[in-house]
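ping. complex inputs:
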Amino acid sequence: MEKFKKKHNYEGLLIVIEGTDGSGKSTQLELLKRAIEDQSYGVMVSEWKTSRLIANVIDDAKDRNLLNATTYSLLYAADFADRLENTIIPALKSGFIVLLDRYYYTALARDVVRGQNIEWVKNLYEYAPEPDLIFYLDMPVDVLLKRIIGTTGLDFYESGRDVGFSTDFYKSFEIYQKKCLEQYNDMKSEYNFISIDGTKPINEIHKIMKSEVQKILDSGVMY
Amino acid sequence: MSKLTEKHNLKGTLICVEGIDGSGKSTQLALLRDWLKSIGQDVIFTEWNSSELISQTTKLAKKKNMLSPRTFSLLHAVDFADRLKQVIDPALKAGFIVLADRYAYTAFARDVARGVDPQWVRKVYDFAIKPDLAIYFDINPKVSMERICSNRAPKFYEAGMDLKLSNDPYESYMIFQTRVIKEYQKMVKEFGLVKIDAMDSIHKKQVEIREMLKKVLEAKGVVL
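pong. complex structure:
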């Protein structure tokens, strides 16, 4: 059942930045937003797990360790559906350039690492429109680990502690992040990610992203 | 093939009742539970949309009319998955008789009546364990409405008001529940739901249900 890769016919553009935690997505999103706004386009940003319907339920359930792999998948899918239907698609219809911090590729990576069948997860998201551009910030695992430890620190779920890879916090974190990276790697060609070396300087990464976006804008699709 | 179509090999027994509101299924399940307990059986009861994880959120979202057919479907799937993994599966492994007031078939009936793709929602629930016995209480929508709406108007989602079928909640209820029933009737064949006539007396239905349960248990080597 390959219902993915449906081209959307909305007026706007759908641009996604993907990558694991600590890969610099938010920084790039902010830069890209400003660069596009400077050219007088309407830009809307939406981040992963921010639906009015369910985001706080996920946070609360995580705090209380209430989630199993299946409810984890389904809650995120509900969050995504709510944002897609109420925020993203309406914005695309009215001609916005929608910049997304993570898209369903995040769910595919994380859920599969948690042992879910990939076809089952794909089915949850099969109705999602394909983005016009998907940037993937590719990070070697050792750099990534240091970056996360140096900034946000280790989080229970982001270390895959719920999966039980290891009772050692660092070990679990390392295994989890490596497995997520493997999933992202597998998706690169399947979904046409524009993969960018995440260790490059911020400005260089931004230039690459901006030029890709500019190509679309200059093609006149947005008049 | 999904787990829903394969016989489980767990020690316990899973019985579910299905049908639209007002069909008397909860009454029958309560009678069955009390009886099983009185003869010393280990019984666990679980009902639709009652998980600690999400049921309150779903109820609140329903009150505020915040749900689309897809989020409606996914939130109920969260609830079901939570109860399945926390309650149903462990109880079956421990050898309990699990009585479920509504099961995945409720989602298949309601969500599809809301326009969700039948294959999509079946796949969402493909982790569900196949019940040993699934009883469908067949009732016509008019009787159902008379029973549940004797002292209140139908609620927004139970009347399918989100689908804008009619501005009149009573009329909308009739149209929507007729669709739900149509989906249930298809599932009698697809999943082997056992249909019983909801218009029969409470006693007659209970006798019938106990007979069915006895046969299921005997097949597993349990004699009541």
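Helices of chain B lie at 25-38, 55-63, 69-93, 104-113, 118-124, 141-148, 169-190, 202-219.
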